[in-house]
Amino acid sequence: MQYTKGSLGRVFLLKFEDDDVLIDRLSAFARKERIKAAAMIFIGALKKGDLVTGPKLPVIPPSPNKLTFKDGWEAMGIGTIFTNSKGPQIHIHTGMGKKDKVLTGCLRGKSKVFLVIEAVLLELKGIKAGKEIDPATGLNLLKIL
């Protein structure tokens, strides 16, 4: 295990609206506010999008199970932002439900908001960390500097 220590900076309340592409809007916000490191929690609904629901097999490098969802799902999640030379790197995991079905996974791509997502974003100050491609896994992983 590795770790670093910091403190809380600014606290933001975000309201994402119907048809917002969640990751795109969050990335634009992080750029505008010059956020280098943050944690986020959210509740609301997602209209359609993509999830990675774990690896096909527990081997390194992993081959992801990719899943597309549509038709509106209740959602709650947690995520992080760490900025590197390519900009904000956003990692969101969400649990979603619709009728008697439940999905859990890593939100990807152009996933769209249905009605509203309310989020609280906590900026992390003094954290020396970033994201970079890990050669062993091929994944964009946290690196504590």
Explain this structure.
By secondary structure, this protein is mainly beta. It has one domain (9-144): 60s Ribosomal Protein L30, Chain: A, CATH 3.30.1330. It is 8% helix and 66% strand. It contains one helix and eight strands, in the order βαβββββββ. The strands form two sheets. Strands 1, 2, 3, 4, 5 and 6 form a six-stranded antiparallel β-sheet that branches. The chain has a two-stranded antiparallel ribbon with strand order 7-8. A hairpin with a 2-residue loop joins β4 and β5.
Helices and strands, in N-to-C order? EHEEEEEEE
Look at the structure and name the CATH superfamily.
Answer: Hypothetical protein, similar to alpha- acetolactate decarboxylase, domain 2
What gross morphology would you assign?
Answer: globular
- State the end-to-end CA separation: 13 Å
| Number of helical regions | 1
Uncertain segments of ≥5 residues (pLDDT<50)? none
What's the β-strand tally?
A: 8
Secondary-structure-based class equals mainly beta
> Nearest-angstrom radius of gyration?
15 Å
Beta-strand residue fraction: over 45%
- Give helix % range: under 10%
- Which fold name corresponds to the CATH topology? 60s Ribosomal Protein L30, Chain: A
Overall pLDDT level: 96
Give the domain tally: 1
Query: Which architecture would the CATH scheme give at its second level?
Result: 2-Layer Sandwich
* Main pleated sheet: 6 strands, antiparallel
Assign the CATH class: Alpha Beta
